[in-house]
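Sample A.
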Amino acid sequence: MLEAPQITLFFTAIFVLVSVPMSIMVGLRRAKTGIMLLHGDDEDLLKRMRAHGNFTEYVPLALLALAGAEITGAPGWFVMVCGGVLLLARLIHYAALRRSATSGGRLVGAAMTSLVMTVLAATILAQLAGMV
């Protein structure tokens, strides 16, 4: 029987705990503005929605890649480092997007996310091919 990917489960719990306050921030802004659908003309609501939306667009696939690397036998330290860099990347991206749509932090967070996802995908393929 295959062992559960413990490191990925740890990071999944952390990402869930990070996502909940993001969602609450959107809800609080909706309650304050009375805008219950879309964003109206409220720039702050739009930033909150996109910051949370971007998080939820990338994190699930990244966690699948993290689990794939762990399940296929990547070293635990490697999976832990990738998970940590991914978490840092997503927090940088979120904070930057909340501040400004043109913030350089968005580029940094996005680049770090893409790098981790690419490394994880390559690791999975290498593990499956028996190269590692």
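Sample B.
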Amino acid sequence: MQEMPPITIDVVSDVMCPWCFIGKRRLEAAIRAVPDLDIQVRWHPFQLDSTLPKTGKDRQQYLNDKFGGADRARHVYSQIELAGKSEGIDFAFDKIKLSPNTLDCHRLILWSRADDLQDEVVELLFRAYFLNGENLADAKVLVRISEEAGMQSDLVEHLLATETDLDKTRQQIEKAQESGVTGVPCFIIDSRFVVAGAEKPETLAAALTHANETRTSADMPSFGSS
């Protein structure tokens, strides 16, 4: 009997999205709730704002432009802070001085797949931005994160100075949009089921269980195969 491959979870995400950080925590809890399942998580790029300059934009100006004023922004982010605390995340939005263009972050995540370090890199990017207020548009920060994750940081430093995989990253973002992804996080389970938004762990766990129970031995198309 042919052994079934792992259940894939393709996570479409942007590292400047606080709900994606919350979604990661909830996904981790969901996976812990189904310990008997063989699961493979893969991360895919999305950009909440592709118009941001490469060097980023002043955070306060970005929030004013997006929400129409500081009061509205504070209200929105107060709700996110509460949701974060429930998942053990102490968001430090006041530390963030720059809203980054995240294309280089997504290139780093793409390169980390070769060493099976995507989860580590995504986690470190989220922590650097949302807990420490670091500038993710700064190549030095990304190189340091690559080293902390166990990547070849000297190679990363060289690649970031080039346009390597920029077009590929943009194409992957376009592919997600063409597949119907309009917001993040988005979890594509076993290339068959979609859970949109940072749903509760029990919802994600139920989707994983259902995916496992309805699998067949036929080859399945893969969201992240190209």
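B remarks: The longest strand covers residues 7-13. Residues 7-213 form a domain with the Glutaredoxin fold (CATH 3.40.30.10).
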